[in-house]
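Narrative of accomplishments. A recurring question from our advisory board has been how the design workflow behaves on a single, concrete structure rather than in aggregate. To address it, we present the structure tokens for one chain from the evaluation set, followed by the sequence designed for it. No filtering or post-editing was applied between the two.
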């Protein structure tokens, strides 16, 4: 079934669009590879980072394969033979280069991955801490709002004072006593302040 889909797709791309056979084959190969990686991601066999890395490698492999086929066709102008020879030589050289990365480059890459992982863990911890603090502050704020709009005027008065403190109003500007209300509103002694 997979071979039938591949053949039909390549046939359609080469005959009904202006796509060369090498490019069509590379595109179909990448499509099958990425579909396989998406299935592995869905099943939980790979994480998102590994899925992206594998998909990038599939695209790079297909690009090298297509370019090698083009180069082979140019150097060996026999229709199929040039593409096949170029593809095999290019793929083999690419595989050798990929497998023989120097120890230093591999170490740098591993150190980079480890550094990214540490930063990710640190940011996750900071984010969780921020969320926890924000949750506590929100809960406190909602409790104060409940007190501010309570039916009992004494509860409202105390809640308003606490809310003002929470919002950063300087203590000397908070109307938290009868004397401060009289001075601020110019009320006479004995007047009830409900504001």
């Amino acid at each position: 079934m997979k071979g039938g889909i591949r053949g039909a797709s390549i046939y359609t791309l080469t005959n009904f669009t202006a796509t060369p056979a090498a490019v069509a084959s590379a595109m179909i190969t990448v499509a099958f590879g990425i579909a396989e990686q998406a299935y592995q991601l869905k099943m939980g066999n790979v994480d998102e980072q590994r899925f992206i890395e594998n998909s990038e490698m599939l695209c790079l492999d297909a690009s090298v394969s297509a370019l090698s086929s083009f180069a082979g066709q140019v150097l060996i102008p026999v229709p199929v033979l040039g593409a096949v020879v170029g593809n095999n030589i290019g793929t083999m050289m690419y595989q050798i280069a990929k497998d023989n990365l120097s120890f230093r480059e591999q170490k740098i890459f591993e150190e980079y991955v480890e550094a990214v992982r540490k930063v990710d863990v640190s940011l996750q911890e900071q984010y969780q801490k921020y969320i926890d603090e924000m949750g506590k502050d929100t809960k406190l704020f909602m409790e104060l709002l409940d007190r501010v709009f309570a039916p009992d005027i004494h509860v409202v008065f105390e809640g308003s004072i606490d809310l003002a403190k929470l919002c950063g109003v300087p203590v000397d500007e908070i109307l938290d006593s009868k004397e401060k209300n009289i001075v601020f509103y110019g009320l006479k002694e004995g007047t009830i302040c409900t504001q």
